[in-house]
Amino acid sequence: MTTDAEFEAAIAALQDWVGRERIVEDEIGLSSARRMAGMLDIDPASLKQGDELPPHWFTMFFPDIAQQRDIGPDGHPNKGVFLPPIPLPRRMGAGRRVKIDGALRIGEPAIKRAIVAQVAPKIGRTGRMAVLTMRHVIETRGQVIAVDEFDALYREAPKPGQASPSSPPQPAPGNAAFADRVLLSSPLVFRYSSVTWNAHRIHYDADYARDEEGYPATVQNGGLTMQLMLDAALKRATGRLSGFTARLARPLWVGDTVTLCGAAQADGKMECWAADKDGHLCATMSLEFAA
């Protein structure tokens, strides 16, 4: 086992990854958009070639497509294929900061510039961690339509038989202006993983999630949680979504029900949150709107 100093040195050795950029192309195909619509209970036939998509749907396009031989035991692409080889085995989404200036159109090609923005070590209550921040710049028609900074948290593996560490639960706020209950069914999570080309085994392989990563059940996809929160908020919002900040605070489990809540919109902003079946706060989101 390495010392904390050796761990920090290993992360420091990855700093030459910071600033690296690669381009991911996508044609924003009609069939892909219709699959996303069906997964979100929107009539797929309502989408036509040339239609403008909801502004936050860019997060479901531009997947990293690894060859099968490059897929690791956890279902993610092996370290160093697309992302820095951080020497910690477990990876989960933590949060994101997004600015939106436009939207994708079905049938119009677009690109994602994926830039390694930061690799930072952390040694905390639950052990060694590292935070990887990726900056995704979305461009279409020669214009930047979104900038998305996404944080992924890397952790040590739990010891055999040990539960995955988690933060103490916090109660969700009690001032909701709306509350939508959504069942996080296995088919829903599978379909989201499919449309985003995410093979992380914690989302569909219960034995792996329990035995290898110490979770009590398969884990809800954090990207889907954010998607559902945005959809719930935009049903009540006025103005154009111009950005949002999200933080994932506590895992949700596949098969449970999540409650998507929000306060009334004021001064061009809306605060939203997600609560688990026990009323614990699992995610928060701040949305901004332009007139």
TrEMBL record:
InterPro entries: HotDog_dom_sf, Mitochondrial_HTD2
Matching PANTHER family: HYDROXYACYL-THIOESTER DEHYDRATASE TYPE 2, MITOCHONDRIAL
Protein name: 3-methylfumaryl-CoA hydratase
Organism of this sequence: Roseomonas nitratireducens
